[in-house]
Specification:
The chain is built from three helices and six strands, in the order E-H-E-H-E-E-E-H-E. The protein has helices at about 15-25, 35-45, 65-70, and strands at about 5-10, 30-35, 50-55, 55-60, 60, 80-85. The chain is globular.
């Protein structure tokens, strides 16, 4: 049996993570949610991630630091897409 893709959603908005979780689980993916940098890194340490949807503004810092930390630990996902409400 082929493993289902694992998607990590990193966002501090319960509305965003809830909606995306439903969408991706209903299409046959395994989904993890993290609301902070610390939690996202912990998920990556525990399990490989195929796709990460990453908010750039998190309560404990800049979302890009999640990617930098994962890269340093060799746990970065295959694909990362940024989610942000930033204008720049």
């Amino acid at each position: 049996m082929e493993a289902r893709p694992h998607i990590l959603i990193v966002d501090d908005s319960a509305d965003v993570t809830g909606a995306l979780r439903v969408l991706f689980e209903e299409t046959g993916n395994d989904v993890s949610v993290a609301n902070t940098i610390h939690d996202a890194v912990a998920v990556a340490d525990a399990r490989s991630i195929d796709v990460m949807l990453l908010d750039l503004t998190l309560p404990d810092g800049d979302g890009l630091s999640v990617l930098a930390t994962m890269r340093a630990r060799a746990t970065e996902p295959r694909v990362t897409a940024a989610l942000t409400g930033r204008a720049e």
